[in-house]
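Rotation project, supervised by the postdoc (A.L.). Task for the rotation student: set up a whole-complex structure prediction and record inputs and outputs verbatim in this book. Inputs entered:
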Amino acid sequence: MNLRAVFWIFRKEMSIYLATPLAYIIGAIFMLLSGYMFYVLISYFAVNYVRLTMMGSANVDLTQEILRPFFGNTAFLFLLIVPLLCMRLFAEERRLGTIELLLTSPVRTVEIVLGKFLAALTMNFFIYLLTIVFPLSLYFFGKPDWGPILTGYLGVLLMLMAFVGLSLFASAVTSSQLVAAALSFGLLLMLWIIGWINLTGTASAFVTELVEYISVVQHLEDFYKGVVDSKHVVYFLSWTFFGLVLTYFATESNRWRAAS
Amino acid sequence: MHGIHAENPPLYNEMTVVGFLRFIAGLRGVPRRQISERVDTVIEQCGLREVASRIVGRLSKGYRQRLGLAQALVHDPPVLILDEPTVGLDPQQVVEIRNLIRTLRGQHTILFSSHILYEVTQLCDRVIVIHEGRIVAQGSLEELQTGLMAEQRLRVRFRMDAEELPVRMQELPGVREVRSIDGYRQFLIRVEPEEETLTEIIRWLANQPWGLLEARQETLTLEDIFIQLTTGRTDVMHETPTETVEKVS
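Outputs recorded:
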Protein backbone atom coordinates (compact mmCIF):
# COMPACT_ATOMS: atom_id res chain seq x y z
CA MET A 1 0.00 0.00 0.00
CA ASN A 2 1.18 3.45 -0.91
CA LEU A 3 0.90 5.80 2.06
CA ARG A 4 1.40 8.84 -0.12
CA ALA A 5 -1.79 8.08 -2.00
CA VAL A 6 -3.64 7.66 1.31
CA PHE A 7 -2.24 10.99 2.39
CA TRP A 8 -3.38 12.76 -0.81
CA ILE A 9 -6.91 11.43 -0.48
CA PHE A 10 -6.92 12.36 3.21
CA ARG A 11 -5.72 15.86 2.46
CA LYS A 12 -8.28 16.38 -0.27
CA GLU A 13 -11.15 15.30 1.97
CA MET A 14 -9.92 17.50 4.80
CA SER A 15 -9.64 20.49 2.49
CA ILE A 16 -13.24 19.95 1.38
CA TYR A 17 -14.43 19.64 4.99
CA LEU A 18 -12.70 22.88 5.85
CA ALA A 19 -13.84 24.72 2.71
CA THR A 20 -17.55 23.95 3.12
CA PRO A 21 -19.84 25.12 5.92
CA LEU A 22 -21.28 21.73 6.92
CA ALA A 23 -18.60 20.73 9.42
CA TYR A 24 -18.59 24.18 11.06
CA ILE A 25 -22.35 24.21 11.41
CA ILE A 26 -22.38 20.70 12.85
CA GLY A 27 -19.56 21.63 15.23
CA ALA A 28 -21.43 24.72 16.41
CA ILE A 29 -24.74 22.89 16.91
CA PHE A 30 -22.96 20.05 18.65
CA MET A 31 -21.29 22.45 21.07
CA LEU A 32 -24.60 24.15 21.77
CA LEU A 33 -26.33 20.86 22.53
CA SER A 34 -23.50 19.39 24.58
CA GLY A 35 -23.13 22.65 26.48
CA TYR A 36 -26.79 22.52 27.38
CA MET A 37 -26.47 18.86 28.43
CA PHE A 38 -23.50 19.70 30.60
CA TYR A 39 -25.36 22.57 32.22
CA VAL A 40 -28.32 20.32 33.07
CA LEU A 41 -26.04 17.66 34.52
CA ILE A 42 -24.18 20.23 36.64
CA SER A 43 -27.45 21.68 37.95
CA TYR A 44 -28.76 18.23 38.77
CA PHE A 45 -25.52 17.36 40.48
CA ALA A 46 -25.57 20.56 42.54
CA VAL A 47 -29.06 19.86 43.89
CA ASN A 48 -28.22 16.23 44.52
CA TYR A 49 -24.99 17.15 46.25
CA VAL A 50 -26.81 19.36 48.75
CA ARG A 51 -29.36 16.64 49.40
CA LEU A 52 -26.76 13.91 49.81
CA THR A 53 -24.53 15.92 52.14
CA MET A 54 -27.55 16.74 54.30
CA MET A 55 -28.25 13.01 54.47
CA GLY A 56 -24.69 12.47 55.66
CA SER A 57 -23.03 10.75 52.73
CA ALA A 58 -20.55 13.40 51.69
CA ASN A 59 -18.52 11.10 49.46
CA VAL A 60 -19.95 12.03 46.05
CA ASP A 61 -17.89 11.28 42.94
CA LEU A 62 -17.85 14.30 40.64
CA THR A 63 -16.45 12.33 37.71
CA GLN A 64 -18.92 9.50 37.93
CA GLU A 65 -21.96 11.65 38.55
CA ILE A 66 -21.36 14.19 35.78
CA LEU A 67 -18.97 12.80 33.22
CA ARG A 68 -20.44 9.34 32.76
CA PRO A 69 -23.85 10.57 31.64
CA PHE A 70 -22.16 13.39 29.77
CA PHE A 71 -20.10 11.01 27.65
CA GLY A 72 -23.14 8.85 27.03
CA ASN A 73 -25.32 11.75 25.92
CA THR A 74 -22.76 13.47 23.71
CA ALA A 75 -21.75 10.18 22.06
CA PHE A 76 -25.43 9.64 21.30
CA LEU A 77 -25.44 12.81 19.17
CA PHE A 78 -22.92 11.18 16.85
CA LEU A 79 -25.59 8.79 15.69
CA LEU A 80 -26.65 11.71 13.52
CA ILE A 81 -23.37 13.61 13.14
CA VAL A 82 -21.37 10.72 11.67
CA PRO A 83 -23.89 10.02 8.88
CA LEU A 84 -24.01 13.74 8.07
CA LEU A 85 -20.24 14.05 7.84
CA CYS A 86 -19.80 10.81 5.90
CA MET A 87 -22.69 10.89 3.46
CA ARG A 88 -20.78 12.98 0.92
CA LEU A 89 -17.60 10.91 0.76
CA PHE A 90 -18.51 8.39 -1.92
CA ALA A 91 -22.05 9.32 -2.93
CA GLU A 92 -21.12 12.77 -4.20
CA GLU A 93 -18.11 11.43 -6.10
CA ARG A 94 -20.41 9.00 -7.85
CA ARG A 95 -23.02 11.63 -8.59
CA LEU A 96 -20.53 14.10 -10.11
CA GLY A 97 -18.42 11.44 -11.77
CA THR A 98 -15.29 12.55 -9.93
CA ILE A 99 -14.89 8.97 -8.73
CA GLU A 100 -13.49 8.38 -12.24
CA LEU A 101 -10.61 10.74 -11.46
CA LEU A 102 -9.74 8.53 -8.51
CA LEU A 103 -10.32 5.20 -10.20
CA THR A 104 -8.32 6.14 -13.30
CA SER A 105 -5.36 7.24 -11.21
CA PRO A 106 -2.68 4.83 -10.08
CA VAL A 107 -4.31 4.59 -6.66
CA ARG A 108 -5.62 1.39 -5.15
CA THR A 109 -9.13 1.11 -3.80
CA VAL A 110 -7.71 0.32 -0.34
CA GLU A 111 -5.89 3.64 -0.40
CA ILE A 112 -9.00 5.57 -1.41
CA VAL A 113 -11.08 3.92 1.32
CA LEU A 114 -8.43 4.44 4.00
CA GLY A 115 -7.80 8.06 3.04
CA LYS A 116 -11.48 8.88 3.25
CA PHE A 117 -11.89 6.89 6.46
CA LEU A 118 -9.06 8.72 8.18
CA ALA A 119 -10.34 12.12 7.05
CA ALA A 120 -13.88 11.45 8.27
CA LEU A 121 -12.60 10.00 11.54
CA THR A 122 -10.33 12.99 12.13
CA MET A 123 -13.17 15.43 11.47
CA ASN A 124 -15.65 13.60 13.72
CA PHE A 125 -13.19 13.11 16.53
CA PHE A 126 -12.00 16.68 16.31
CA ILE A 127 -15.58 17.87 16.77
CA TYR A 128 -15.97 15.52 19.70
CA LEU A 129 -12.72 16.78 21.22
CA LEU A 130 -14.21 20.26 21.44
CA THR A 131 -16.10 18.96 24.48
CA ILE A 132 -12.79 18.85 26.39
CA VAL A 133 -13.67 22.32 27.65
CA PHE A 134 -16.38 20.79 29.86
CA PRO A 135 -14.19 18.38 31.87
CA LEU A 136 -11.64 21.19 32.07
CA SER A 137 -14.24 23.53 33.53
CA LEU A 138 -14.81 21.02 36.33
CA TYR A 139 -11.52 22.23 37.77
CA PHE A 140 -13.45 25.21 39.08
CA PHE A 141 -15.58 22.92 41.21
CA GLY A 142 -13.27 20.22 42.35
CA LYS A 143 -10.77 17.65 41.26
CA PRO A 144 -12.00 15.50 38.40
CA ASP A 145 -10.27 12.17 37.89
CA TRP A 146 -8.31 12.25 34.64
CA GLY A 147 -8.22 8.47 34.12
CA PRO A 148 -11.90 7.99 33.25
CA ILE A 149 -11.83 11.18 31.15
CA LEU A 150 -9.05 9.82 28.97
CA THR A 151 -10.55 6.36 28.65
CA GLY A 152 -13.93 7.99 27.96
CA TYR A 153 -12.43 9.81 24.98
CA LEU A 154 -10.68 6.64 23.89
CA GLY A 155 -14.02 4.80 24.01
CA VAL A 156 -15.70 7.48 21.90
CA LEU A 157 -12.80 7.41 19.42
CA LEU A 158 -13.24 3.66 18.99
CA MET A 159 -16.99 4.10 18.65
CA LEU A 160 -16.44 6.76 15.97
CA MET A 161 -14.14 4.41 14.05
CA ALA A 162 -16.90 1.83 13.90
CA PHE A 163 -19.53 4.43 13.01
CA VAL A 164 -17.42 6.03 10.29
CA GLY A 165 -16.55 2.63 8.81
CA LEU A 166 -20.23 1.68 8.54
CA SER A 167 -21.32 5.12 7.27
CA LEU A 168 -18.63 5.01 4.62
CA PHE A 169 -20.19 1.81 3.34
CA ALA A 170 -23.62 3.45 3.24
CA SER A 171 -22.13 6.27 1.18
CA ALA A 172 -20.41 3.85 -1.19
CA VAL A 173 -23.57 2.06 -2.28
CA THR A 174 -25.52 5.07 -3.56
CA SER A 175 -25.04 8.25 -5.53
CA SER A 176 -27.48 10.15 -3.32
CA GLN A 177 -26.19 11.77 -0.16
CA LEU A 178 -29.61 11.65 1.46
CA VAL A 179 -29.98 7.94 0.85
CA ALA A 180 -26.50 7.43 2.27
CA ALA A 181 -27.31 9.45 5.40
CA ALA A 182 -30.63 7.64 5.90
CA LEU A 183 -28.98 4.25 5.52
CA SER A 184 -26.18 4.91 7.95
CA PHE A 185 -28.40 6.65 10.50
CA GLY A 186 -30.77 3.67 10.50
CA LEU A 187 -27.89 1.25 10.84
CA LEU A 188 -26.20 3.13 13.70
CA LEU A 189 -29.44 3.75 15.57
CA MET A 190 -30.23 0.04 15.36
CA LEU A 191 -26.84 -0.77 16.85
CA TRP A 192 -27.58 1.67 19.65
CA ILE A 193 -31.07 0.52 20.59
CA ILE A 194 -30.75 -3.18 19.89
CA GLY A 195 -30.17 -3.75 23.63
CA TRP A 196 -33.71 -2.64 24.46
CA ILE A 197 -35.01 -6.14 23.85
CA ASN A 198 -33.16 -7.23 26.98
CA LEU A 199 -35.09 -4.72 29.10
CA THR A 200 -38.31 -6.55 28.31
CA GLY A 201 -37.02 -9.81 29.77
CA THR A 202 -38.77 -11.77 27.03
CA ALA A 203 -35.72 -12.72 24.98
CA SER A 204 -34.13 -16.17 25.26
CA ALA A 205 -30.74 -16.54 26.90
CA PHE A 206 -29.01 -16.84 23.54
CA VAL A 207 -30.64 -13.72 22.12
CA THR A 208 -29.89 -11.80 25.31
CA GLU A 209 -26.23 -12.65 25.07
CA LEU A 210 -26.02 -11.97 21.36
CA VAL A 211 -27.76 -8.62 21.66
CA GLU A 212 -25.53 -7.69 24.56
CA TYR A 213 -22.55 -8.37 22.38
CA ILE A 214 -23.87 -6.40 19.40
CA SER A 215 -25.17 -3.36 21.29
CA VAL A 216 -22.84 -0.36 21.21
CA VAL A 217 -24.00 1.06 24.54
CA GLN A 218 -22.90 -2.00 26.51
CA HIS A 219 -19.39 -1.70 25.17
CA LEU A 220 -19.00 1.98 25.99
CA GLU A 221 -19.91 1.79 29.70
CA ASP A 222 -16.57 0.36 30.83
CA PHE A 223 -14.63 3.13 29.07
CA TYR A 224 -16.65 5.78 30.91
CA LYS A 225 -15.81 4.04 34.18
CA GLY A 226 -12.13 4.22 33.38
CA VAL A 227 -11.70 0.60 32.34
CA VAL A 228 -10.04 -0.36 29.07
CA ASP A 229 -11.02 -3.93 28.33
CA SER A 230 -9.56 -5.54 25.22
CA LYS A 231 -12.86 -7.24 24.42
CA HIS A 232 -14.49 -3.84 23.91
CA VAL A 233 -11.56 -2.66 21.81
CA VAL A 234 -11.88 -5.78 19.66
CA TYR A 235 -15.62 -5.19 19.38
CA PHE A 236 -15.21 -1.70 17.90
CA LEU A 237 -12.29 -2.67 15.70
CA SER A 238 -14.34 -5.54 14.28
CA TRP A 239 -17.14 -3.20 13.24
CA THR A 240 -14.60 -0.83 11.77
CA PHE A 241 -12.97 -3.59 9.78
CA PHE A 242 -16.32 -4.98 8.68
CA GLY A 243 -17.47 -1.54 7.48
CA LEU A 244 -14.23 -0.87 5.62
CA VAL A 245 -14.21 -4.25 3.89
CA LEU A 246 -17.79 -3.68 2.69
CA THR A 247 -16.81 -0.19 1.51
CA TYR A 248 -13.85 -1.66 -0.33
CA PHE A 249 -16.02 -4.08 -2.29
CA ALA A 250 -18.70 -1.48 -3.00
CA THR A 251 -16.05 0.88 -4.40
CA GLU A 252 -14.20 -1.83 -6.26
CA SER A 253 -17.41 -2.77 -8.05
CA ASN A 254 -17.44 0.72 -9.56
CA ARG A 255 -14.34 -0.16 -11.53
CA TRP A 256 -16.20 -2.83 -13.44
CA ARG A 257 -19.39 -0.89 -13.99
CA ALA A 258 -19.62 0.98 -17.29
CA ALA A 259 -19.81 4.73 -16.82
CA SER A 260 -23.25 5.95 -17.79
CA MET B 1 -0.80 6.69 -17.78
CA HIS B 2 -2.93 8.74 -20.12
CA GLY B 3 -4.49 12.12 -19.64
CA ILE B 4 -8.19 12.20 -20.35
CA HIS B 5 -10.35 15.26 -20.85
CA ALA B 6 -14.01 14.92 -21.79
CA GLU B 7 -16.77 17.35 -22.63
CA ASN B 8 -17.97 17.82 -19.03
CA PRO B 9 -14.85 17.26 -16.99
CA PRO B 10 -15.50 15.88 -13.49
CA LEU B 11 -14.01 18.40 -11.05
CA TYR B 12 -14.11 18.91 -7.30
CA ASN B 13 -16.22 22.03 -6.97
CA GLU B 14 -15.22 22.78 -3.39
CA MET B 15 -11.47 22.97 -4.03
CA THR B 16 -9.42 25.86 -5.37
CA VAL B 17 -7.96 25.56 -8.86
CA VAL B 18 -4.42 25.21 -7.50
CA GLY B 19 -5.50 22.84 -4.73
CA PHE B 20 -7.30 20.65 -7.22
CA LEU B 21 -4.36 20.47 -9.61
CA ARG B 22 -1.93 19.72 -6.78
CA PHE B 23 -4.19 16.93 -5.59
CA ILE B 24 -4.45 15.39 -9.05
CA ALA B 25 -0.70 15.69 -9.58
CA GLY B 26 0.01 14.01 -6.25
CA LEU B 27 -2.54 11.30 -6.92
CA ARG B 28 -0.98 10.49 -10.28
CA GLY B 29 2.42 10.09 -8.76
CA VAL B 30 4.20 13.32 -9.68
CA PRO B 31 7.16 13.46 -7.26
CA ARG B 32 6.53 15.85 -4.39
CA ARG B 33 9.27 18.30 -5.40
CA GLN B 34 7.99 18.63 -8.95
CA ILE B 35 4.35 19.17 -8.06
CA SER B 36 4.57 22.96 -7.70
CA GLU B 37 6.49 23.25 -10.95
CA ARG B 38 4.10 21.01 -12.92
CA VAL B 39 1.03 22.76 -11.56
CA ASP B 40 2.56 26.11 -12.39
CA THR B 41 3.36 24.96 -15.93
CA VAL B 42 -0.17 23.77 -16.73
CA ILE B 43 -1.71 26.85 -15.15
CA GLU B 44 0.39 28.92 -17.52
CA GLN B 45 -0.25 26.65 -20.52
CA CYS B 46 -4.00 26.57 -20.02
CA GLY B 47 -4.37 30.26 -19.21
CA LEU B 48 -5.67 29.71 -15.69
CA ARG B 49 -3.37 32.21 -14.02
CA GLU B 50 -6.03 34.76 -13.13
CA VAL B 51 -8.37 32.17 -11.58
CA ALA B 52 -5.68 30.09 -9.86
CA SER B 53 -6.92 30.79 -6.34
CA ARG B 54 -10.63 30.70 -7.16
CA ILE B 55 -13.03 27.94 -6.06
CA VAL B 56 -13.61 25.47 -8.91
CA GLY B 57 -17.40 25.56 -8.46
CA ARG B 58 -17.48 29.29 -9.32
CA LEU B 59 -15.59 29.01 -12.62
CA SER B 60 -17.26 29.75 -15.95
CA LYS B 61 -17.81 26.97 -18.46
CA GLY B 62 -14.75 28.05 -20.45
CA TYR B 63 -12.46 27.96 -17.43
CA ARG B 64 -13.88 24.62 -16.31
CA GLN B 65 -13.04 23.25 -19.73
CA ARG B 66 -9.50 24.57 -19.45
CA LEU B 67 -9.16 23.15 -15.98
CA GLY B 68 -10.28 19.80 -17.38
CA LEU B 69 -7.49 20.03 -19.89
CA ALA B 70 -5.04 21.15 -17.20
CA GLN B 71 -5.81 18.15 -15.01
CA ALA B 72 -5.29 15.85 -18.00
CA LEU B 73 -1.88 17.45 -18.59
CA VAL B 74 -0.60 17.88 -15.07
CA HIS B 75 1.28 14.56 -14.89
CA ASP B 76 2.75 15.15 -18.38
CA PRO B 77 1.19 12.08 -20.03
CA PRO B 78 2.61 10.68 -23.30
CA VAL B 79 -0.92 10.21 -24.63
CA LEU B 80 -3.65 12.79 -24.22
CA ILE B 81 -7.25 11.82 -24.97
CA LEU B 82 -9.61 14.70 -25.74
CA ASP B 83 -13.30 13.93 -26.13
CA GLU B 84 -15.10 16.92 -27.67
CA PRO B 85 -13.20 19.52 -25.67
CA THR B 86 -14.88 22.51 -27.31
CA VAL B 87 -18.54 21.56 -26.95
CA GLY B 88 -20.63 24.24 -25.28
CA LEU B 89 -18.05 27.00 -25.44
CA ASP B 90 -18.51 30.41 -27.00
CA PRO B 91 -16.60 31.11 -30.25
CA GLN B 92 -13.84 33.02 -28.49
CA GLN B 93 -13.25 30.17 -26.04
CA VAL B 94 -13.35 27.61 -28.84
CA VAL B 95 -10.55 29.44 -30.63
CA GLU B 96 -8.52 29.62 -27.42
CA ILE B 97 -8.90 25.91 -26.69
CA ARG B 98 -7.93 25.07 -30.28
CA ASN B 99 -4.85 27.21 -30.06
CA LEU B 100 -3.98 25.55 -26.80
CA ILE B 101 -4.29 22.10 -28.34
CA ARG B 102 -2.12 23.27 -31.23
CA THR B 103 0.64 24.25 -28.80
CA LEU B 104 0.59 20.75 -27.30
CA ARG B 105 1.34 19.18 -30.66
CA GLY B 106 4.71 17.46 -30.64
CA GLN B 107 4.86 17.13 -26.86
CA HIS B 108 2.05 14.61 -26.53
CA THR B 109 0.29 12.16 -28.79
CA ILE B 110 -3.21 13.56 -28.88
CA LEU B 111 -6.30 11.51 -29.59
CA PHE B 112 -8.98 14.01 -30.43
CA SER B 113 -12.60 13.11 -30.93
CA SER B 114 -15.12 15.58 -32.33
CA HIS B 115 -18.23 16.04 -34.40
CA ILE B 116 -17.06 19.45 -35.50
CA LEU B 117 -15.25 18.49 -38.67
CA TYR B 118 -13.83 21.92 -39.36
CA GLU B 119 -11.97 21.59 -36.08
CA VAL B 120 -10.60 18.26 -37.21
CA THR B 121 -9.27 19.72 -40.47
CA GLN B 122 -7.65 22.50 -38.46
CA LEU B 123 -5.97 20.34 -35.85
CA CYS B 124 -5.38 16.80 -36.96
CA ASP B 125 -2.60 15.07 -38.87
CA ARG B 126 -4.31 11.74 -39.11
CA VAL B 127 -8.03 11.14 -39.30
CA ILE B 128 -9.98 8.03 -38.40
CA VAL B 129 -13.66 7.91 -39.26
CA ILE B 130 -15.70 5.59 -37.10
CA HIS B 131 -19.21 4.69 -38.19
CA GLU B 132 -21.43 2.48 -36.07
CA GLY B 133 -18.47 1.26 -34.07
CA ARG B 134 -16.28 0.36 -37.01
CA ILE B 135 -13.39 2.20 -38.61
CA VAL B 136 -14.53 3.11 -42.12
CA ALA B 137 -11.50 5.16 -43.16
CA GLN B 138 -8.17 6.33 -41.85
CA GLY B 139 -5.22 8.30 -43.08
CA SER B 140 -4.16 11.89 -43.53
CA LEU B 141 -6.73 14.35 -44.78
CA GLU B 142 -5.13 14.41 -48.26
CA GLU B 143 -5.14 10.63 -48.45
CA LEU B 144 -8.81 10.55 -47.63
CA GLN B 145 -9.57 13.25 -50.19
CA THR B 146 -7.75 11.61 -53.08
CA GLY B 147 -8.84 8.12 -52.12
CA LEU B 148 -12.47 9.04 -52.35
CA MET B 149 -12.37 11.14 -55.47
CA ALA B 150 -14.50 9.33 -58.02
CA GLU B 151 -14.28 12.40 -60.24
CA GLN B 152 -12.78 15.87 -60.32
CA ARG B 153 -14.72 19.08 -60.22
CA LEU B 154 -13.63 22.30 -61.81
CA ARG B 155 -15.24 25.62 -61.05
CA VAL B 156 -14.66 28.24 -63.76
CA ARG B 157 -15.54 31.87 -64.22
CA PHE B 158 -15.46 33.93 -67.44
CA ARG B 159 -15.37 37.64 -68.17
CA MET B 160 -18.10 37.38 -70.81
CA ASP B 161 -21.23 35.27 -71.24
CA ALA B 162 -20.40 31.81 -72.58
CA GLU B 163 -23.74 30.35 -73.63
CA GLU B 164 -22.20 27.78 -75.98
CA LEU B 165 -19.74 26.39 -73.44
CA PRO B 166 -21.86 23.34 -72.40
CA VAL B 167 -22.45 22.31 -76.01
CA ARG B 168 -18.84 22.86 -77.09
CA MET B 169 -17.43 20.96 -74.13
CA GLN B 170 -19.51 17.86 -74.79
CA GLU B 171 -17.04 16.99 -77.57
CA LEU B 172 -14.00 17.07 -75.28
CA PRO B 173 -12.72 13.74 -73.90
CA GLY B 174 -13.16 13.14 -70.18
CA VAL B 175 -15.92 15.67 -69.57
CA ARG B 176 -18.92 14.25 -67.79
CA GLU B 177 -21.17 17.22 -67.24
CA VAL B 178 -21.13 20.99 -67.53
CA ARG B 179 -23.56 22.86 -65.33
CA SER B 180 -24.04 26.61 -65.30
CA ILE B 181 -24.12 28.13 -61.84
CA ASP B 182 -24.82 31.80 -62.25
CA GLY B 183 -26.07 32.86 -65.65
CA TYR B 184 -23.48 32.05 -68.32
CA ARG B 185 -20.35 33.23 -66.58
CA GLN B 186 -19.81 30.58 -63.94
CA PHE B 187 -19.83 26.84 -64.51
CA LEU B 188 -19.18 23.64 -62.65
CA ILE B 189 -17.49 21.00 -64.80
CA ARG B 190 -17.37 17.35 -63.72
CA VAL B 191 -14.36 15.56 -65.17
CA GLU B 192 -12.94 12.00 -65.14
CA PRO B 193 -10.60 11.43 -62.19
CA GLU B 194 -7.30 11.48 -64.19
CA GLU B 195 -5.24 14.61 -63.60
CA GLU B 196 -3.93 14.81 -67.18
CA THR B 197 -7.49 15.19 -68.44
CA LEU B 198 -7.98 18.13 -66.13
CA THR B 199 -4.80 19.80 -67.36
CA GLU B 200 -5.95 19.38 -70.96
CA ILE B 201 -9.36 20.87 -70.20
CA ILE B 202 -7.90 23.88 -68.41
CA ARG B 203 -5.56 24.49 -71.36
CA TRP B 204 -8.55 24.27 -73.74
CA LEU B 205 -10.60 26.66 -71.59
CA ALA B 206 -7.83 29.24 -71.49
CA ASN B 207 -7.85 29.39 -75.29
CA GLN B 208 -11.56 30.16 -75.56
CA PRO B 209 -12.73 33.66 -76.55
CA TRP B 210 -14.82 34.40 -73.42
CA GLY B 211 -11.86 35.38 -71.27
CA LEU B 212 -11.14 32.84 -68.52
CA LEU B 213 -10.79 34.61 -65.19
CA GLU B 214 -10.70 31.72 -62.81
CA ALA B 215 -10.44 27.94 -62.86
CA ARG B 216 -10.41 26.26 -59.49
CA GLN B 217 -10.33 22.57 -58.67
CA GLU B 218 -12.81 21.73 -55.93
CA THR B 219 -11.49 19.43 -53.23
CA LEU B 220 -13.65 17.41 -50.96
CA THR B 221 -14.21 18.85 -47.51
CA LEU B 222 -14.09 16.52 -44.54
CA GLU B 223 -17.87 16.87 -44.39
CA ASP B 224 -18.18 15.50 -47.92
CA ILE B 225 -15.81 12.65 -47.15
CA PHE B 226 -17.69 11.90 -44.00
CA ILE B 227 -21.07 11.78 -45.66
CA GLN B 228 -19.73 9.65 -48.49
CA LEU B 229 -18.26 7.21 -46.03
CA THR B 230 -21.22 6.95 -43.73
CA THR B 231 -24.04 7.02 -46.26
CA GLY B 232 -22.40 5.74 -49.41
CA ARG B 233 -23.81 8.72 -51.36
CA THR B 234 -21.47 10.90 -53.36
CA ASP B 235 -23.52 13.98 -54.12
CA VAL B 236 -25.42 14.94 -50.96
CA MET B 237 -24.15 17.70 -48.73
CA HIS B 238 -25.85 17.87 -45.38
CA GLU B 239 -24.78 17.01 -41.85
CA THR B 240 -25.30 13.61 -40.32
CA PRO B 241 -24.42 13.04 -36.67
CA THR B 242 -21.96 10.18 -36.34
CA GLU B 243 -18.78 9.83 -34.32
CA THR B 244 -15.38 10.64 -35.76
CA VAL B 245 -12.09 10.14 -34.05
CA GLU B 246 -9.00 11.89 -35.26
CA LYS B 247 -5.43 11.74 -34.28
CA VAL B 248 -2.78 14.44 -34.04
CA SER B 249 0.76 13.46 -33.21
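Student's summary: Residues 162 and 240 of chain A are 4 Å apart (CA to CA).
Supervisor addendum: The two ends of chain A are 30 Å apart (CA to CA).
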